[in-house]
Structures are given as C-alpha cells and as structure tokens.
Amino acid sequence: MSEAYPADALPLPLTPQQIDSAWLTRALRQRLPHISVVESQVIDVILGTSTKIRVRLAVEGEGAGQIGETLIVKGGFEEHSPKMAAMYANETRFYADIQPLIPMPSPRAYFAGTDPHSHQSIVIMEDLKRPGVDFCDALRPHRFDQIARRMETMAAYHAATWASPHFRPGGRWADIASRFDGWGWTICAVISCPMSGRIIGPCRVARPSPPGCTTATGWNGR
Fold first, then answer.
1. How many CB atoms lie under 10 A from the CB of residue 156?
2. 121 and 89 in contact (C-beta within 8 Å)?
3. What Å distances lie between residue 24 and 17, 37, 84, 116, 192, CA to CA?
4. Cα 130 from chain centre
5. Residue 214 predicted with pLDDT over 60
6. Is the pTM of this model over 0.85?
C-alpha cells in the first residue's frame, strides 16, 4: 500500500506556529468529517527524535466528544528532522494502516499522513498525560510483571499477523519488509553511534523479517 497523502490536510505544517485551528480542522476531518476546531493553542513542545506538540483545543460538531481537551501532534519539527523522514513515514504508516487491525494497546490516532513534498509525516493522537498513566523511564528498572505484560502484548500482535494474507503480493502490507531495507543503517549513520566502536563494536540494528509486524514506540512522551 502506498503512503497516505491526505490532500485536504496538505501541506503538513513544518513549524509549531503552523499548527492552527484551520489546519487541525482539515486534518481531523480525515476521520471525523463533521467536526470543526474553533479554538486551539500550542501549550507545550517536547523536543526529541520526534517532536511532540501538545495542543489545547475546542471542537464542535458531530464526533467532537471523541476528542479530549488536549491532543498531541507528533512529527518532525526540528533541525535534524529531514534526516529522519523515513522513520516518521514508517510510524505514520503504522497508525494509518496497521494499528486498526492488530490487538495492541496504543494511543488513539485521529490523523496519520505523509507530505510527499517535504520530509514531514504527522500523527495526531490522544494525549496520554492524565491520571492513571505512568510513562516509562529508561533509568527506572521494570518489574517482572511489567516485562511479562509487554511480552504477552508482543506475542499477541505477532500471532495476529503471522502468515497474514496482507503480506502477500498485492496485499496492504506487501511492502513492509522492503521499507526497512538499509533504513537501520541509515539511522545509525545519522546518529553516528559515537560509543559503539569503543564499547560494543560496530553498530547493529535489528531488521524485521516477514511475516510479522513492527511498531513505532515512544508515543507522546510527557
């Protein structure tokens, strides 16, 4: 399946300032065609490999109740972002074409699209910063039960996609394996792996082998 090029939402914004009510309305109408964003404000910008932009908004129309008071616009809004275009496109592909079909706990996506005229791919997702949600921390060890739950979830979506007809020629996922050819090495070059040669040897990046399914992580940060 080709990338999602949502004509009504193009061009995708390249700066936080371009995320306004008019663009949000066009983007959110891809899945909620009767809503209108009547007010919006960027209230937080979280820098990282992908930029997470928290937006407070007021929405009217049929389906407005499905959107919270805030949401996350995730994409490439930083100096390094053009080098990460392939990664952004892969994450967008997950939310557009894979997430709806697999049993995986993950944020609800209201929009997922790629702009063929820039490096930009954007996912608009629910804001997970709310009571009862605990974000992982790389410096905080996980308990056995947390790791076991994660392994069970991974097993479930691998089982659901194992030998899926979607991977066959002409299927909606037929191109997934090819999307990662050389991609890991490209990203490795981008980040330069400065410590790998001294400590762990040459940089190595795992590649998925069909049939199977890989997913984007990181979600929407803090």
1. 14
2. yes
3. 12, 7, 23, 19, 36
4. 19
5. no
6. no
The identity of residue 11, as a single letter, is P
Contact 122, 220 (CB under 8 A): no
Q: Which two tokens stand for residue 57?
A: 């908004």
Angle between helices 85-93 and 183-191 (to 10 degrees): 130
Q: Mind listing the pLDDT tens digit for each residue in 96-137?
A: 999 999 989 899 999 999 999 999 999 999 999 888 888 888
DSSP 3-state of 149: helix
Query: How far is Cα 16 from Cα 13, in angstroms, rounded to an integer?
Result: 7
How many beta carbons lie within 10 A of that of residue 194, not counting itself? 8
If one counts every other C-beta atom within 10 angstroms of the C-beta of residue 205, the result is 13
Is residue 36 within 8 A of residue 59, CB to CB? The reply is yes
Q: Is the predicted pLDDT of residue 89 greater than 90, yes or no?
A: yes
